[in-house]
Amino acid sequence: MDLTTVRSVRTPSHRDDITLAPGEHLLGGGTWLFSEEQPDLVGLVDLTALGWPDLERTDDLLTIAATCTIATLVGTTPDADWSAWPLVARCANALLASFKIWNTATVGGNVGVALPAGAITALLVTLDAVAVVWTPDGGERRVPVERLVLGVRSIDLAHGEVIRAFEVPTRALRGRTGYRRTALSPHGRSGTLVTARRDDDGFVLVVTAATPRPLVLRWEAVPDDATVVAALDAHRDWYDDPHGSPAWRRAVSTRFAQQLRAEAQAQVGGAA
Question: For tag attachment on the chain, is the N or C end more exposed, with fewer CB atoms within 10 Å?
Fold first, then answer.
């Protein structure tokens, strides 16, 4: 969609240049920004001009720039022991986006829009990612992605704050992951997306798309089936929109969580 109210596009070369004037908006990939009318928008500040490295690796962390495109992330060759890496492509495909979108949409943009069906948010939460947030005073703060998204189109960012990157611990990348997704139509928006990770630190289940914000359930070991069902039964905040009713979303999410729990239990041996 043409943004007919935009009068300027700035390309910052330094952090100080991204201070927003009234009516300006940060631009990453812009796939959501250009998808609907933005009547109050008068200017764009293109973060891609800052040239942040897409991916940086250390022994302990994989750092993903907020401006890294989904295509770049999916196309990255993982380290040999990153057994969790197949979850990247699975979550990217959950977006049901064309390769054109993958080549433009950014990791930070998918999280920053804070939509329930933001599958890159699901990916990062499952991998215990931490968002690096630049603050207007020149500092930065870190917040786990599971706490960054507060609800539908609501995110824990103050005015002037910018998501700079996401730090993914390599210990999480060495875990075993699981994935389940469904929608009301073959090419519809996700009704629920349930992901899981098991490693030496325990077992985590993450429910997105079916909930306004990520639902994260953690245990020190793979729990029994009754424990998982009870945890989902206790949750009351299920999303309601044309892509699924709360009752349906709760039912399929619970079933998927049971399946992922059983898979994890089978990996460690035995039944529970």
Answer: N
